[in-house]
Design goal:
The structure is a homodimer of 398-residue chains. Helix content of chain A is 38%, strand content 15%. With 398 residues, chain A is α/β, with parallel strands linked by helices. The first copy, chain A, folds into 2 domains: 145 residues, Aspartate Aminotransferase, domain 1 (Alpha-Beta Complex), CATH 3.90.1150.10; 239 residues, 3-Layer(aba) Sandwich (Aspartate Aminotransferase, domain 2). Chain A has a 7-stranded mixed sheet, with helices on both faces. In chain A, strand 5, helix 8 and strand 6 form a beta-alpha-beta unit. The longest helix of chain A is centred in the C-terminal third of the chain and has 23 residues.
Chain lengths: 398, 398
């Protein structure tokens, strides 16, 4: 009965082990969730207030491209970064997810190829599958902090079916922030080979140690062949709002988004009120939030360094890091943590990194850690992870 | 730069004439919108209250399949109709739109075909395009109230690529409610030819004159090959909430929906609170809402009967009707109404029906009227439409 695409659609590696976590909880174990990018930081009260103050008696469809005010505050937001964007160049989506699938569909046909540095945010794999597009991985590795490889490594993967390149900066899952030089290289390659650049900048603010984020919108010469894919989920700690957006200066591309968007009518109306408030009052909360993630990054990195045989470089941004663990199979280890290990009734869940790679066999001994808990809990969760690894190596793999 | 699917994605016929309406409004003309199914009926206050009372400090991701409570109240809702549904058989989507695209993708691969009685809710065309699926229209016509044609007319359209059949009851855009006998015929054909039935029952409650709605879930022998596609948008006058759902007893199909759903993480969280309240307190408002639509239906039908040369049968359900107008090209007429006609500073906008047909050339002289305004405004809007037709026939076509 099912289609091939239905049968072979991959389950989310972030979510598919959740049944094990639920089973642990049923047995009374508390699970520290470092597997999913669901922050515990309170959503700014300005956002809830705007949602509560929705003034109308009818909860109506909005425009397919988003409410005018949502588009305006996002254009203003980019202007504060010195990036000139007009409201017409902003298209509001239902979460960053929809920004991805609409953008992919606007540029690719079934059978086309898109390049993406690997490991990558796993749901790109899901959306490529749904769009019948093949993701072609560009190899990067934990040893050199997941930096982009030389041009020729990228260019030798370009075929006549290649239509675009996806870049995630700050990167989910690696925490790498691409330098301006790396972004310019992407731009040059895109121009040379007639590719479109999809730049996922969801974590734009989460950049540490004085580094500076470079948006694809700042790169010259590719104005007509790039789009920013974005979302308020992480920036405003409002994952459940499902408000994302695309920014592009290519009018034909925007028009295709609009036609895709008309089919699904509109993004959520009330939660756009929250998004508008978030962008308006960002100065009230953003710096505190970034500082908090920087402290957590420090704790996670410190604790990883205590794990014998584990390896990672210090994450530069976002709130993730990919770590090589001293275990043969990270997924088996994660399941074991949920089914057979706890400290004082608590255990820790991380995400297997193999699901973030398109190349079979890669990332088998790596995990993604999302540092989305407050410092004290995070330290405890990381200690439990370390103790689990020690026990697992001795008793299971030993 | 754009893909074929991006270039050829159809614009919504309901929305693509909106620039003409906006232009009319800029000139100070008030536009009665009978083009879009956006009701003016207040969203029940219970729904807004639930949204306002969201208790948590963080607006988090929910489960990809929807919150447990949302799935439970929907299972209860079906039980009140005597239809046994378990919460596990309910999958919450971001609007009915997502229910459509996920269900299509679970059953079809690019190049497959799906049957659908024509005219049909235009966005099925959009979603089929996005899924690279061909919709094969089953002809129906205004003369016989858009009833299903005999089995052989349906069966002769089945090829080896046909994977399913879409049925919308009560129908958007025609207002037809399929009888139990018609639903059983669909079931028999689906079983005989190994097809999946997608049954869009968004307007389940909006059935008039003592007629009874038959759900696909009541049809025996196709339990493993059907799904209900549904949404709270119209039932609760909450189009902007973007909460829909799929109900099916096919576990593999539900599992495919879950994997598609994991890629987009979750449907909106806060607006599920509203949906839960809507289903809990339905008895407080549903009958009044249905009575109101019945009164409007009567007004629309009465007024159509006054238009010389117009034709339709009395709509049985939903809040639409497709009318043949005495004009050569309905779209030209609609644009003329927005650009060149008004009565006391007001004009009326309806949707061209050609966009609801897959067969080129069909529906050119038909429009869809959505009776989504209160009785007095609706009567005035319909009078303006009648006067517009008279003038247009005399001065433009005459």
């Amino acid at each position: 009965m099912l289609s091939h695409r239905g049968n072979t659609m991959p389950a989310s590696p972030i979510r598919r082990l959740i049944p094990y976590a639920n089973e642990a909880k049923r047995k009374g174990i508390e699970v520290y969730h470092l597997n999913i990018g669901q922050p515990d930081i309170p959503t700014p009260p300005e956002i809830f207030e705007a949602i509560r103050n929705f003034p109308d008696k009818v909860l109506p469809y909005g425009p397919s491209e988003g409410l005018p005010e949502t588009r305006e505050v996002i254009a203003d937001y980019f202007r504060r970064y010195g990036i000139e964007v007009s409201p017409d160049e902003v298209f509001i989506t239902t979460g960053g997810s929809e920004a991805i699938i609409f953008s992919l569909m606007a540029i690719t046909d079934p059978g086309d190829e898109v390049l993406i540095p690997e490991p990558f945010y796993t749901n790109y794999g899901g959306f490529a599958h749904m769009s019948s597009v093949r993701l072609v991985p560009i190899p990067t590795s934990v040893e050199d902090g997941f930096r982009l490889p030389p041009d020729e490594v990228i260019e030798e993967r370009i075929t006549e079916r290649t239509r675009g390149i996806i870049i995630i900066t700050p990167n989910n899952p690696t925490g790498t922030v691409y330098t301006r030089e790396e972004m310019e290289r992407i731009g040059r390659i895109a121009k040379k080979h007639n590719l479109f650049v999809f730049s996922d900048e969801v974590y734009r603010e989460f950049v540490f140690d004085g580094k500076r984020h470079t948006s694809i919108l700042e790169i010259e010469g590719i104005e007509d062949r790039c789009a920013v894919l974005d979302s308020i989920s992480k920036r405003f700690s409002a994952c459940g709002a499902r408000i994302g957006f695309v920014v592009s200066r290519n009018k034909k591309f925007l028009d295709a988004l609009l036609r895709f968007g008309q089919a699904r009518l509109c993004p959520p109306t009330i939660e756009q009120m929250g998004a508008i408030a978030g962008f308006k009052y960002m100065n009230n909360f953003m710096q505190d939030m970034v500082d908090e993630y920087r402290r957590r990054r420090d704790v996670v990195y410190e604790e990883i360094m205590k794990i014998e045989g584990a390896f990672t470089l210090k994450p530069e941004g976002a709130f993730y890091t990919v770590v090589r663990l001293p275990v043969k199979n990270a997924e088996d280890f994660i399941i074991w943590m949920l089914t057979s290990f706890s400290v004082d009734g608590k255990t820790t869940m991380v995400a297997p990194a193999n699901g973030f790679y398109a190349t079979p066999g890669k990332g088998e001994d790596e995990v993604r850690i999302a540092y989305v808990l407050e410092v004290e809990k995070l330290r405890h969760a990381m200690e439990i992870l370390r103790l689990g690894i020690e026990r697992y190596r001795n008793e299971v793999e030993g």
